[in-house]
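User: My notes are a mess, but here's the protein and pyridoxal-5'-phosphate's SMILES. Can you give me a structure?
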Amino acid sequence: MADYTALVAARSGSDIVQQLGSITLETLIQMDDNDELKGQTQAFRAPTIHELKRDNSSDVSRQTEGESERRCIYFCGNSLGLQPLRTRAYVLAHLQHWQSKGVYGHFSEGSAYEGARDSRSPPIMDVDEEAKGPAARVVGAKPDEVAVMQTLTANLHFLMASFYRPTKQRYKIILEGKAFPSDHYAVESHIQTRDINPKEAMVLIEPPSTNSLILPTSHILSVIDQHASSAALLLLPGIQYYTGQLFEIQKITAYAQSRGIVVGWDLAHAVGNVPLKLHDWNVDFAAWCNYKYMNCGPGAIGGLFVHERHTQVTPTSAVPNGQIESGTQVTPNYRPRLAGWWGSAKDGRFSGVNHFVPSPGAGGFQLSNPSALDLAAVRASMSIFAAVSMTQLRAKSLKLTAILEHLLMSPSLLNLPAQVKGHWPPYSIITPADPRERGAQLSIKLDEGLLEPVMERLGDAGVVVDERKPDVVRVAPAPLYNTYVEVWRFCEIFTNACYVARSGKI
Ligand SMILES: *Cc1c(COP(=O)(O)O)cnc(C)c1O
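Assistant: No problem, the inputs look usable. Here's the predicted complex:
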């Protein structure tokens, strides 16, 4: 059985497949049996094909009863992760807590709140704090460098308000030309609101070659060099949402920082997918959403990271020995930001004195009291992540995705009609072939005209993947809940769908 060091050293999917030995349906069943994450897989339940197709409104309770019918193959965790089974219990526990405690539910102590504490519903004052520890583990940060708050785009705005500090000399923001629209708009609008012309200030990194969308590190570094003296900020995705390319976060961060550029990362597709070490990599800031690989539910509360060197709150030098006379208001030094009461030190939140002093740490970037209802779903999912390591997840993910690639590119292993002729396969994979440059997702580019019929067949067969018109299917086996056998079944259904779709065209 392949070990982690060998897996992460592999330079191609076939390297990994070789480590695994022969790939047959039988060996994959065996691998599922031996999977150390099997317990986590069982913490989720994919929709049944029947559920996907019927109107749920009449009978919600049936969903919990475990229908005997076949589950769909859900390879869409890059878009919206599955609901953990325990989420329902966490949400209900919160509803009960709110109903029975009212405002007293905020605190753990006090005359009215001495009841037995349900770990699924801590005091409302602490719900955001409880989520940040597991989140910090997932992104490789210290707990105080992470805040669970707001949504991804909002967090990018708050972070740029603090970290984009344009001067006459340095005012550009470098990002990718094919950035996710929201990131592009966020950057553009920040530049506009500072009365700077986006045409001059937005540097869009385009692929160096016309026949690939991949941005090689060397190319990114050369763009940084071109704008080294005029760029204020570099904002890139950890994993590119369309191609699935995993960027060299540590190397790019260090390179840009050495040229005086602040570096932020959008980790929407990286968090919960690949191991991250934001603290050690010295990243300035990062933001992510929690509804993709993090499984916290549609529009869930997101997260942000601010490196601890940016979050210190220090007494001003004007105060001798840090001694503050009582009654005087001394404003300490801290990084300017868009502030709200939830970012102020906890004991100051209810003081009634309008004197903002942020809590040290990323928590000092919070604004509002968070929705405890939404956080119930976040904490439910975090409790699953707290029980696994990103190394374990990555090890399984490398195997799942390598097997997926292997079977897609050698369909002779599968049960395909013998008369497949001519140009095969009628698709190519646009995600990097080197496993070190990708996460769980493979983006498959279909030959012209095939997308619609293929998606239709996949839908009929109960396969859930994500299409990007005109011709790309994004396929993401999530290591937390997908299985090796599902990869096999997916490849059979997918290659058959391609075969039939193409035959239909001829
Ligand atoms: C999913 C995703 C978003 C979505 O932003 P929200 O603010 O959560 O709606 C933004 N950027 C990237 C790169 C994404 O992948």
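The longest strand covers residues 231-237.
User: Great, I'll file this with my notes.
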